[in-house]
Amino acid sequence: MTTVVIIVALALVAACALAFLYARQRGGHGIRRRFGPEYDRTVARHDGDAKAAERELHERLKRHGSLHERPLTPEAREQYAERWTRIEGGFVDAPQQSVAEADALLAELARDLGFPDGRDFGEQSAALSVHHAEHVNGYRRVHAAKKGDGGTEDMREALLEARGLFDVLVSNGTDQPVRRHPHHAEGSGKA
User: Fold this and answer.
1) What pTM did the predictor assign?
2) Which residues constitute the domain of residue 90?
3) What's the total number of domains in the chain?
4) How far apart are CA 104 and CA 117, in angstroms?
5) Which of 22, 53, 166, 188 has its CA 20 to 30 A from that of 77?
């Protein structure tokens, strides 16, 4: 009888250990799935240490996961869209100024939606990464490009990538595009 109890106890311990390992492994996949490219970027920043990256991402979730974006009024959406169109339109003549203005506009837009103030870029981009992981890298690229370290093509690519975050933020999290002005053509060659 005691042998049966010992065998059952060992089986239960083994089952619990396997369940724990499975849950832990799925947790990593869940965080990877939630953060997408942001997960990979964070792992790379931690020199391939997935556990350290996951700890950082879990901390971001804890700090910013409960943040609820405030909706923009239709008028505010239109004003932001007009400003972005002007920024893109000015890129050919003043690329450095355009990326600096795009960086400032994204910081202001994020703040107006309820994200941390843009004066602390790291904190604001961390919060954005929790809610918009697929697009936050464009904001980071524009922020870095405004320093002028890269060439015009780098700035153009940064502005194009940042537009993805802009579009998501200004659409209040919907997939409804903001009306673009007729003089702004997607394939016009402008940023």
Assistant:
1) 0.74
2) 74-170
3) 2
4) 11
5) 188
